[in-house]
Model the fold of this input.
Amino acid sequence: MLELEHVTVRHGATIAVRDVSLSVTAGELVALVGPNGAGKSSLARAIAGAHRPAGGVIRFAGIDITRLDAPAISALGLTHLPEGRPLALTLTARDNLLSGAYVLGSMARAHERLREVLPMFPALATRLDQPAALLSGGERQWLVVARALMARPRLLLIDEPTLGLGPRAARETLDVIAGLRASGTAILLIEQNAALALGVADRALAMSAGRIVAEGAPRSLLDDAGLADRYLGERR
Amino acid sequence: MSDFQIGLLSNVGMIAFVALSAYLLLISGSISFGQQAYFGLGAYAAGIATALWEWPLAVALGLGALLGGVGGGLVGLLTRRLHGVYFAIATLAFAEVTRVALDLWRYQRAIGGELLGPDGPNGFNGIRRAFEEGWTPQSFMILIWTLLAATLLALMLFERSRAGIAVRATGGDPVLASLLGTDVARLRVAIAAAAGAIAGLGGGLYAHLNTYIEPRLFDVMLGVHALAYGLIGGLGTALGPLIGVMIDIGILESSRLFHGWRMVVFGGLVALLLIWRPRGLLDEATVGRLRAWFYPGTRHA
Done:
């Protein structure tokens, strides 16, 4: 579904991502963990077309998307949930959801999709006509995930979905995300909260200083005490 | 209906076009201090078309809207990468350039033994086509409100369309909107063109009701008011700016209640609303509640 070969991302003279290769297949949840500044978000922005990589090739569903811009990439079915700008707060919850269905091409399809997505999030159904600014932190996070589903994505690229959430809301959010695999959606989950992310992932990658430093089953990354100590900031 | 009431309603209707023009940009996240320029361009174009070229009124109004749209679209194209205060300054600069250019422009012809047409700062006299075609102040007022109602209806339908949602999403967060698939730069140019056309249509009506226009009518105060109307009335629906115009022109200006203090009251009202209801009386939350109340069936879908 998603393949990266030797991708390098620069910010001016700084190299944020160095020679990263990875792949995500349909229905798979891959967690990308690592400390602050490891280059995770830079990599996500490069994949989504928000920042053009300095080198390497990114393929999505067999198409070379390395040089495509963000709207074109999202139209192919790759939905990026960036860190820190989860919702348009002045829009009602309904309009936030409908805006997620832009790539479906028509309002009729957007409303049809809304009827499919809403039952998965009963808490949102009664709050549709309120601006997102009035929703609680947990409700906003549901809304972010629900909006991502509106596009019928083939791959979700999620950056720090649990940022700012309490432990329980964080776990619930990750459970919902993990549940999306059932429909064949591929997920690349970027998290600083490694223990939580590795708990739901099928496969995991650890990044540090712009490189992939470990790859494998989530268990093996968690059990590698040295790795956890050095890169994941987790002491168990 | 008294002449005073007809005049008042006509004024509210015409100014509502500039207010809607500024509103359309506001909901897309752009603050323009320059929509008065397209109102002015529409007024001059439509006036020239009827008074000098002797076109029918309907075609001239169309030309005014078209020129407003082209002007708005060109400025939109040049400013499509500008945001916030930079966009605001750029739109103000273009509007002032337009106004000063109209101040310097002379294009006069003898029509029926009378010299007509734009005469720089002396203005443009004799735009009488509407009344020559048999429009009375009352029927012209109805024309203004019919066109305004059509524009409002079109805007309200647009706001519930896919592109309309994308406009609001862009207004909320342009980066997010682009990640969700919207070509933000193209959308902003299209919105600027549509907003220019709406202002241009209002300008054509204005020129023909007043029969006289001059460049300083289209100065920045009109643009500031146009913005304020949306911020007072609310950014949740296209009816918001109309309510803003009604409050200012319909109540504050016409009642003479506050005499010379009108602008002080108006300014104070804007300041208070910006503190208590930063997105106006009919903001998104209120409109959402009203919608849920009117259409309870849509609540769960």
Remarks:
- The longest helix of chain A spans residues 137-150.
